[in-house]
Amino acid sequence: MSNKLMVLFAMTAGFAGGLLSRYAGSAPVYAQAAPEIPQEIRARKFVLVDETGAARGAFGVETNGSVQIEVRDKKGQIWRYPPFAFANHTIFSTAEAPPKEPTLLR
Question: Which residues, at least 6 apart from 95, have a Cβ–Cβ distance to it below 8 Å?
């Protein structure tokens, strides 16, 4: 076959296939709808982990009901907010004092 005839045959087959798929094909397929973003997330504790999976920080409710943020530095020392010394400050006057020992990053 000559090249012109091959090109003509390929174009004819392409158009025929396109028409066939439009009228004889199944229902059109669309992309999935984006998942709905939750309006609220509830948990007692949120934990931040490093690339090895070790817990490096936590935000949550302590065993006595007070809210606490704890962060572990590279040396393994745990830093807390609000610090125990400030737990009775006017901002935190309605909350109980947090436990003396960290409980979120055990």
Answer: 66, 67, 87
The amino acid occupying position 91 is I
Query: Could you tell me if residue 92 is left (phi over 0), alpha (psi between -120 and 50 degrees) or otherwise beta?
Result: alpha
Mean pLDDT of 25-54: 84
Closest CA to 87 of 100, 78, 77, 102: 100
Give the DSSP letter of residue 94.
T
- 75 in Cβ contact with 85 (< 8 Å): no
Tokens in use for 14? 């392409």
Give pTM, 2 decimals: 0.48
Distance from C-alpha of 89 to C-alpha of 78, rounded to nearest angstrom: 22
| Predicted pLDDT at 32 | 82
pLDDT tens profile 67-80:
888 888 888 888 88
